[in-house]
Amino acid sequence: MSNETSSVATSAPSNNPMKKIIAIVAFAIVIFLVFIAFSVTKSVQNNDRLADIEALYFPVLERTDANVVRLPAETQAMMQLAACIGSQFSLDMLAQIAGKPTSVVIRCLWPALRDGLLVPEGGDWFLGMVSPHCRFLHDRMLQAAYQSMSEVERQQTHLRVVWAVH
Questions:
Q1: What is the Cα–Cα distance from 35 to 131, expressed in whole angstroms?
Q2: Angle 114-119-121 from CA coordinates, rounded to 5°
Q3: Rounded CA gap, 132 and 123, in Å?
């Protein structure tokens, strides 16, 4: 009888837990590889979309830089000072930093305002009752003006901004 039980025990399917663990790990690896393949495919599609956006956007950036460069030198200089203040700025603060009357600052900025590179906001521009403000139409305008300055000019202008604020 013991021979019969030993032959029955050896013929029964093995319930080895290691085989189950290996099967689960293999399944997880397959899922991981499918996920990676999907991610790579999506990344390639996104890169194609980015290339399309880049093809549309870079000509706009080049025109923006060209618009800033073709402005009169005094307008460029005033926009550089304004870029150190920030995307929005008070004309009174800009005048203080430039060391010029507000009327001169407005006259210097007029070409940029006329071309739409700067947008007037608030204040009474003609009667001078409230301090008028401006903002750069686009962040790229600010960057173009800011990057056209040397590092030393930027530092000096930032120092003047700090003095004007305090």
A1: 58
A2: 125
A3: 4
pTM for the predicted model, two decimal places = 0.58
Q: What are the extents of the domains in the chain? A: 19-70, 73-165
| Dihedral sign of CA atoms 120, 143, 72, 60 in order | negative
Fold (topology level) of 73-165: Arc Repressor Mutant, subunit A (1.10.10)
Helix-strand-coil split of the chain, %, nearest 5: 75, 5, 20
Residue 41, CA distances (Å) to 30, 33, 47, 49 in order = 17, 12, 10, 13
Virtual torsion, Cα 76, 143, 152, 164, nearest 10 deg: 80
The two tokens of residue 73 are: 């030198």
What residues contact 123, with CB distance under 8 A and at least 6 apart?
91, 129, 130, 131, 132, 133
pLDDT in tens, 27-75: 888 888 888 877 777 766 666 676 666 665 555 555 555 566 688 899 9
